[in-house]
Design goal:
Layout (H helix, E strand, L loop, with lengths): L22 E6 L2 H9 L8 E3 L10 E2 L1 H4 L9 H7 L4 E3 L3 H18 L3 E5 L2 E5 L4 H4 L2 H16 L3 E6 L2 H10 L5 E3 L5 H6 L11 H8 L6 H6 L2 H8 L1 H11 L15 E12 L2 H22 L1 E12 L4 E12 L2 H13 L7 E13 L12 H17 L12 H4 L2 E4 L1
Length: about 400
């Protein structure tokens, strides 16, 4: 598979067979870095790190010139600079990235109404129904790449295939600034030589466990007894991976996506080892999560926390709730329970709280006794104050303690 630095790149020649390859995966190339180059052409060809210049921040994105030195997203900026001392560190400009993302997505919708955004810089498109307007899938892919380049000014890579899974694999292989088409009849041949780690759902631990049994390629999965795959991956994931290995992926392009989780996290300017301070921070994050849930009309069935220690080791823990909720007090209580059960091994540099397994608020089952009724009313008042005066106009007294405020660096 193409590496993150663009080596190992594969592209299709002009006029390549595109029969049955009606699903496109479009992925912007080093999006944040490309936007910076667009706005300042003197940066072209230089190794760029997008991230806060503080040594404790992490890399949001990096240009391909920097990636060739081993720089990767989510890496500490200090480590990235050790790998690539000549790199330029540029603070991220998220409003600008969102502006250009919206322009790209609008362009996609001019080609087909069947667009499924995956993130700020990638989307699936179903172009099977636009042949009379724009031509075959290969024609549409080339048109899209040209229009994104000419009208927005940014490079993108496109994978075209019969399924979403293979289209995404193809776009990754074609990076940067390429197009790879996998005709439907060539799907199994294309997959056979790919590494098992390239299949969705097969992470590093599963890859190592499969490799220990001599299963390294997709062809090895197909040739292995299903029971062996299931022992390594579990029955559900094993069945799913076997399907993907055979080129079977029934998922359609979804034009409306249900938000799967809502979360906030905080990186501290100084590592914190005071449990009291950390519990207050969890309350603050939970209140923000609850406010977003209520604003969006969701309730959470599960609460999870993320804890990153001073040595950058990271743990996550999750807890199912007895009833779905959008009440920050309830979310905070669950987050603190998870935190208190942790085997903490030193000062903490990052905390996060996330609400998961969301469902619309209207589907919550009413109960005869609502333990959260008082807090629901209190948080309703907070929501009203936020709408009128801005978020933070009224808050918990514990959150006004300066020693929490002063030790935070950034919010997300």
């Amino acid at each position: 598979m193409g590496r993150g630095d663009g080596s190992g790149r594969l592209v299709s020649p002009e006029g390549a067979d595109d029969t049955g390859a009606g699903i496109l995966h479009v992925d912007m190339d080093a999006f944040y870095a490309s936007v910076e180059v667009l706005d300042d052409p003197t940066l072209r060809g230089k190794p760029l790190i997008i991230g806060a210049p503080e040594s404790r921040s992490v890399v949001s994105s990096a240009s391909y010139e920097a990636r060739r030195f081993g720089v990767r997203s989510a890496m500490p900026v200090s480590q990235a600079l050790r790998l690539c001392p000549a790199a330029l560190v540029i603070p991220p400009r998220f409003p600008r990235y969102l502006e250009l993302s919206a322009a790209v997505m609008a362009l996609f919708h001019e080609i087909t109404p069947l667009v499924e955004p995956l993130s700020i810089d990638e989307a699936f498109l179903d172009v099977r129904g636009v042949r009379r307007l724009w031509g075959s899938p290969g024609d549409v892919a080339r048109l899209l790449r040209a229009r994104v380049r000419d009208e927005v000014g940014l490079p993108c890579s496109v994978g075209a295939a019969a399924t979403k899974h293979v289209a995404k694999m193809a776009s990754t292989l074609s990076k940067p600034d390429g197009l790879l088409i996998v005709p439907e009849a060539a799907t199994t041949r294309f997959l056979a030589g790919r590494r098992v780690s390239e299949l969705w759902g097969v992470g590093p631990k599963a890859t190592d466990a499969l490799a220990a049994r001599g299963i390294r390629t997709v062809a090895d999965i197909i040739d292995s007894p299903p029971a062996m795959i299931d022992r390594v991956l579990g029955a559900a994931l094993g069945a799913r991976v076997r399907q993907l290995a055979q080129g079977v992926d029934p998922r359609e392009v979804e034009t409306t996506r249900v938000e799967k989780s809502v979360g906030h996290e905080e990186t501290f300017a100084d590592d914190i080892d005071d449990p009291g301070v950390l519990r207050v921070e969890l309350r603050r994050l939970a209140d923000r999560v609850g406010a977003r849930l209520r604003e969006s009309g969701w309730e959470a069935g599960t609460v999870s926390i993320k804890v990153r220690f001073a040595d950058f080791s990271t743990v996550t823990r999750a807890q199912a709730l007895p009833e779905t909720t959008a009440v920050g007090q309830r979310i905070g209580a669950a987050a603190i329970d998870l935190f208190d059960a942790l085997d903490r091994r030193g000062p903490i540099r990052l905390l996060g709280v996330r609400a998961e397994k969301l469902r619309p608020s209207a589907t919550a089952v009413p109960t005869l006794w609502d333990d959260d009724d008082d807090w629901r009313r209190v948080e309703g008042v907070l929501d009203g104050a936020a709408a009128k005066f801005g978020r933070g106009s009224i808050t918990r007294a514990t959150l006004l303690d300066g020693h929490v405020k002063d030790r935070r660096k950034t919010g997300q």
